[in-house]
Amino acid sequence: MASTKDRQRxxxxxxxxxxxxxxxxxNAAARRNRRIAIVTAIAIVVVGGxxxxxxxATSSNxxxxxxxxxxxxxxxxxxATPSSTAxxxxxxxxxxxxxxxxVPIFNAVQAAKPYTATIHTNRGDxxxxxxxxxxxxxxxxxxxxxxxxxxxxxxxxxxxxxxxxVLQCGDPTGTGSGGPGYQFQDENLxxxxxxxxNGQVTYKAGTVAMANSGPGTNGSQFFLVYKDSPLAPAYxxxxxxxxxxxxxxxxxxxxxxxxxxNTQNTPPKEKVTIQSVSIS
Length: 280
Fold this sequence. Notes:
The protein has 280 residues and is an alpha+beta fold. It contains 4 helices and 15 strands. It has a 9-stranded antiparallel β-sheet with strand order 6-15-4-5-14-11-12-8-7. Strands 1-2 form a two-stranded antiparallel ribbon.
């Protein structure tokens, strides 16, 4: 009889394959649209997805559905088994960028420098301290994207208020399928200690972590934990909120708006827009 761990791996592999099939279908549709555009001489802008999240999944890189891109609870089945993608170190091109910002070139000296990030939203400022020594590739990428204005004027597309408690952001398309056109490995997964018998750890309130669609698929989508949440240790913690946690909690207290029937996202009832991100 297969062990619980084997069943979890099988479930994660099946989910990963479904996500990849969806990405392939999206990319094929994008290519068809481009061909039509050439034939008809109509300029069509195609925004496609090597997205992250898996809520904490990302739908295209989803669990960035934080898939923790759709439901972070579903991410509890995420496998910790290294994949060919997860074994790679650094930033590799993946999918189509929601905003064309290129691919960062990792600089270890620069990456080690501590910094504070301020997420300026229409609801107030949320400030976090980056865990640069524990998640250098992640924090370097976040700083890179902020410097390229990647997050400017983007809506947080998912609020989860049951089972886990997170606000997911970082997708310029607002669909949960958007990404920067590159991906990179997981880091700092032992930050909250070893997983319990249920395969989960507690992501503490105030944690900033990456959403993804499986091992090694981090991109731009991230989530803010506003209340202690049980999750598989599969999402890179890369920051700790030092100011503005009450803002996220107030957003959550208002609940969700209508579920988006196209993306199945559960956005906040009151729109939350990242106006810009500053690094100091």
